[in-house]
Amino acid sequence: MRPSRALSWLCVFTLGAVVCSTPAAAQSVNRAAINELNEQLMYVALPLTLFVELMLVYAIYRFHNNDDPRPTVDDPALEVTWTAATGAILVFVGISGFFVLANPYISPASADSTVEAGEGIEIDVLTYQWGYEFSYGDTGVTTSETLYLRNDTDVRFTLRSTDVIHSFYIPELGLKQDIFPSQETVARTHPTENGTHRLYCAELCGSGHARMQAPVVVLNQSEYDDWLGEQQEAGTNSMSTPDANATAGANTN
Ligand SMILES: [Cu+2]
Asked: What is the pLDDT of residues 146-199, one digit of tens each?
C-alpha cells in the first residue's frame, strides 16, 4: 500500500474512532464539567495534530531527494496568519479552562462562597495518620470506613487534618482537594448516578499512606434517608455500615 493511501486510512480511522466513541456517563456534575472541557480541547487538538503530522509526512515525502535545499524566504502574510491562529487557539483554551475553574463544584473558594447554610448535605471530613472520619452534619452520625452520599443532592465537605497534609481524591466524582493541618478547606459535589467509587489520599503522608482509602457509596435518596435513620436509631456516633442488600442495591441501580 502506498504511504499516502495508508496515511489517509489512518486519518479516517482516527476520526471515526473519536466520533463514534462515547465516553462513560459522568458520575457527578464535577466529572461532567471536566469531561466537557477535555472534549472541547480534544476537538481543537485533534485537527491541529493531524495537520502538523500531515505537513511533516508531506515534507519528508516531497523533499526526500532534494540535494540542494534552499533557505525559506520571508512571508509576512503566513507569519501573521499563524500568529493570529495560535493566539485565537490560546484564547479559546484559556476561556474554556477559566469557566471550568470558576465552577463552584471545581474551585473550593467558589464552593465556600456560594453554598448556603442548610442547602444540601454537609459532611465534615477529619483526616489523620492514617484514616478518614466522616460526620454527617448535625445528625450525630459518624462513619470511619465508608463514605455515604445521597444521589442527586448537593454535598459540601469541610475538610480538616489533625496532623500532616492529606488529600481527598475521588476520581470518578471529579473531586481532588488537599487537606492541611490547622486549616479548613472545602470541596463540593453533586452525584448524578448511584454506585460505588473509591476515595484515596493523594499526598504521601507517612508509612501508612497506602491504607488511606475508603469506599464511597452513592445511595438513592430513599436508601440514604433509611440508612441515616437506622444510624440515628442505633445511637449517635455509630460506626456501623448498612446491610449488604442496601449496598448491593446501590451498586446495581
Ligand atoms: Cu494521606
From this structure: 999 999 999 999 999 999 999 999 999 999 999 999 999 999 999 999 999 999
* Cα-to-centroid distance, 145 and ligand 1 (Å): 15
Q: What backbone phi and psi angles, to 5 degrees, belong to 34?
A: -70, -45
d(CA 119, CA 144): 24
User: Which residues on adjacent β-strands are paired with residue 160?
Assistant: 126
Measured in angstroms, how far is the CA atom of residue 184 from the centroid of ligand 1? 16
**122 alpha carbon – ligand 1 mean position (Å):** 22
134 phi, psi to nearest 5 deg: -115, 125
> What is the domain partition of the chain in residue ranges?
3-101, 119-252
Q: What is the pTM of this model?
A: 0.74
Q: From ligand 1's centre to the CA of 17, what distance in Å?
A: 39
CA of 160 to the centre of ligand 1 (A): 12
Q: Which of 132, 130, 247 is nearest to 187 (CA)?
A: 132
CATH topology of domain 119-252: Immunoglobulin-like (2.60.40)
